[in-house]
Amino acid sequence: MEALNGVRILDMTHVQAGPTCSQLLAWMGADVIKLEPPQGDATRGQLRDIPGADSLYFTMLNCNKRSITVNMKSAEGKEVFVDLLKTADIVMENFGPGVLDRLGFTWEKIHAINPRVVMGSIKGFGSTGPYAEFKAYENVAQAMGGAMSTTGTLDGAPYVTGAQIGDSGTGLHLAIGLLAALHQRDRTGIGQYVEVAMMDGVMNLCRVKWRDHQRLERQALAEYSVPTSMGMGDVPRAGNDSGGGQLGNAIHCKPHGPNDYIYVVVQEAVWNNLANLIGPTLGQPELASDPKFATISERRKNQQEMWALIAAFAANHTKREFMAILNPIDVPCGPIMSTTDLANDEHIRGREMYVELEDERRGKWWNVGMPIKLSASPAKLERAPFLGEHNDDVLKNVLGYDDAKVNAMKAAGAFTAAPKK
Ligand SMILES: CC(C)(COP(=O)(O)OP(=O)(O)OC[C@H]1O[C@@H](n2cnc3c(N)ncnc32)[C@H](O)[C@@H]1OP(=O)(O)O)[C@@H](O)C(=O)NCCC(=O)NCCS
Q: For residue 411, how far is its CA from the centre of ligand 1 (angstroms)?
């Protein structure tokens, strides 16, 4: 049996931050009913690559869910929402600030309708404070949560990271909060409101930068490859520095294309072996005992020279060859994997992290798999629902409406957009 079997989620989330969370919970076995506006989650049509099919943006974030369209701006639509809410363990949303309140459903109202329900809410900046009224997307959260000012190089503009720490990262935070609140609900019988702000989630994921922010009040950051000094203030962007106690960098390899790099960590314990391996080839058989590199503090000071030596050795090897050379001497390292590398990677396929799915509109497509592996309830990925695919199913089998009621509600516009004036 799946871990969340029997847990029903009324999922009003859209775009990425919320759907990422509800998809994970669906993969853990929750019954996720995605309640969409009549025109659907906007991502269904965004960045569409096949005419008539939902975009990959939508399908990759909404697997294993049922879809029902409900016009929340009609009285009958609100009635359907309230009926569904009464059957739900979790209700979740990531609308812009105030949207749900304007629809008439504050947390207090939702709690009064179903005191057992746990409510999950994602906002760009939370419901309190000077930024509370602002909308947010991924890169806005990365900008305001400290990720961008600390990513990139000193001489260039701040960079966003390719990983969606603002959207998917926030979805992960929400999943943790929802499961904790559900656990508490099961003991107390009372649900609670779980809020995650994208800005807060990004800050949480930048925790080590806050370590360095405070260290700068007392010391220079010796491990940084860029100049730092006590009292300098902002944590600087430091390229591909490791960010931890050990030195690390991305090393360019043969044939020197944009992804022909390997990330190498010169862990303190491996320096001797590494120096003895590369030194002779570079004409420096005594490299391990060279005073410029003999201790970690010297290696920190002279790291640019050290990286140049490692890169000179790597220039004759591909990233995979260099990995095969470094692995036996226990140097922590990893080739920079392109999306093509990953899509064809045996390890990734074996771990079901790139999974083939199929639907009648899109044909075959691939989703990134479930990264959380539960031994007794492994995830089984199923395609994303078409818009409103489960209207009748949900209305009849979840809410117990009969045909007459369904038809009357349809006629009243509960599931369709109001006609344009
Ligand atoms: C992502 C975001 C910027 C998108 O903004 P947006 O497209 O303007 O969408 P909003 O959520 O603000 O508003 C949606 C509108 O659709 C309406 N709507 C939503 N579901 C509906 C339904 N089922 N029936 C009828 N109307 C519906 C809302 O009532 C709202 O209308 P209003 O402005 O008249 O009140 C915004 O939702 C947001 O800031 N969310 C919180 C942060 C977040 O999650 N961002 C990351 C997304 S990956």
A: 25
Average pLDDT over residues 305-310: 97
What is the rounded distance in angstroms from the CA atom of residue 161 to the CA atom of residue 228? 23
Please tell me the pTM assigned to this model. 0.96
The pLDDT tens digits of the residues spanning 355-390 come to: 999 999 999 999 999 999 999 999 999 999 999 999
pLDDT at 23: 98
Pairing of strands 118-123, 354-359: unpaired
Q: Which residues contact 359 (CB under 8 A, 6 or more apart)?
A: 53, 59, 365, 383, 384, 386
Q: Report the C-alpha gap between 198 and 136 in whole angstroms.
A: 8
How many alpha carbons fall within 13 Å on the CB side of residue 344? 4
Residue 16 Cβ < 6 Å to ligand 1: yes
Show the tokens assigned to 191: 């649900």
pLDDT at 419: 59
- Find out whether the peptide bond into 255 is cis, omega within 30 degrees of 0: yes
* Catalytic residue chosen out of the listed positions 31, 89, 167, 260: 167
Tell me how far the alpha carbon of residue 15 lies from the centroid of ligand 1, in angstroms: 9
